[in-house]
């Protein structure tokens, strides 16, 4: 996993995400995330609920992407049943130079996502 | 309240082909799409329901529904729901485009699990061009 210094540097990449457990108000530590492009895959699992840029500067291109969050496995690890086996968010990057932050707020029976920056 | 348009205060029960549709409104699976930018139902947003079929883990489309008032009558009739994994697909980009808005998501898919097929399930989707929320209701 990246060091703190790497995280600071890489945290300024064009695409980041963050998963918040809304039942506890804490980051969803250990929740696995995958990024796919309507073409080719990238994979990222992280320990603290924050995900370092899934796409580095210069790597993002305009197109359709999908983030997949392994939410059921996460809830199961905490001893909870949940409604969704996983969450997939499909989105469009139109301006590849613009910073994009895609948070996911989760509880066992609900989730919310939005486009941040 | 009385002066509000019919489509806002009294959602029309869209006829799926059954004689009156009232019986079907009590089916086990319903959904509702709310446009949170306007606070109104997302009229005309197309929705598809699929089920994950075991042999081969393929998605099988069960029913497709475009509706006028943002409310969708039971996608599954009483007795039709079985325990398993289902997917609701909402054609949100087409909906926003029809209103002249760009949006972030080409569509929204919500994958969920039915464990108790006898229990009523309501799955609302709240949408704006750059955000959405869903939850399990009843």
From TrEMBL, chain A:
Listed name of the protein: 5-hydroxyisourate hydrolase
Domain Transthyretin/hydroxyisourate hydrolase residues, every copy: 10-116
Keywords per UniProt: Hydrolase, Purine metabolism
Binding-site residues for substrate, renumbered to this chain: 18, 50, 114
Segments crossing the lipid bilayer: none
InterPro entries documented for this protein: Hydroxyisourate_hydrolase, Thyroxine_BS, Transthyretin/HIU_hydrolase, Transthyretin/HIU_hydrolase_d, Transthyretin/HIU_hydrolase_sf
Reactions this protein catalyses: 5-hydroxyisourate + H2O = 5-hydroxy-2-oxo-4-ureido-2,5-dihydro-1H-imidazole-5-carboxylate + H(+)
CDD domains reported in the protein's UniProt record: TLP_HIUase (cd05822)
GO molecular function list: hydroxyisourate hydrolase activity
The family this protein is said to belong to: Belongs to the transthyretin family. 5-hydroxyisourate hydrolase subfamily.
UniProtKB/TrEMBL annotation, chain B:
Claim: Hydrolase is one of the keywords in the record: yes
Transthyretin/hydroxyisourate hydrolase domain: residues covered: 24-137
Catalytic activity: 5-hydroxyisourate + H2O = 5-hydroxy-2-oxo-4-ureido-2,5-dihydro-1H-imidazole-5-carboxylate + H(+)
UniProt keyword Transcription regulation, yes or no: no
EC number annotated for this UniProt entry: 3.5.2.17
GO molecular function: hydroxyisourate hydrolase activity
Binding site for substrate: 32, 71, 135
InterPro entries the record matches: Hydroxyisourate_hydrolase, Thyroxine_BS, Transthyretin/HIU_hydrolase, Transthyretin/HIU_hydrolase_d, Transthyretin/HIU_hydrolase_sf
One GO BP: purine nucleobase metabolic process
Subunit structure as annotated in this protein's UniProt entry: Homotetramer.
Recorded family membership: Belongs to the transthyretin family. 5-hydroxyisourate hydrolase subfamily.
NCBIfam families the UniProt entry points to: hdxy_isourate
Name this protein carries in UniProt: 5-hydroxyisourate hydrolase
Organism per entry: Falco tinnunculus (Common kestrel)
């Amino acid at each position: 996993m990246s060091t703190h210094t790497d995280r600071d540097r890489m945290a300024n990449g064009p695409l980041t995400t963050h998963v918040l457990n809304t039942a506890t108000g804490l980051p969803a530590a250990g929740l696995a995330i995958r990024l796919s492009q309507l073409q080719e895959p990238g994979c990222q699992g992280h320990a603290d609920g924050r995900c370092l840029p899934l796409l580095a500067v210069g790597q993002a291109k305009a197109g359709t992407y999908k983030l997949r969050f392994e939410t059921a496995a996460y809830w199961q690890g905490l001893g909870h049943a949940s409604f969704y086996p996983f969450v997939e968010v499909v989105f469009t990057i139109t301006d590849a130079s613009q910073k994009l932050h895609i948070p996911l707020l989760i509880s066992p029976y609900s989730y919310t996502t939005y486009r941040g920056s």
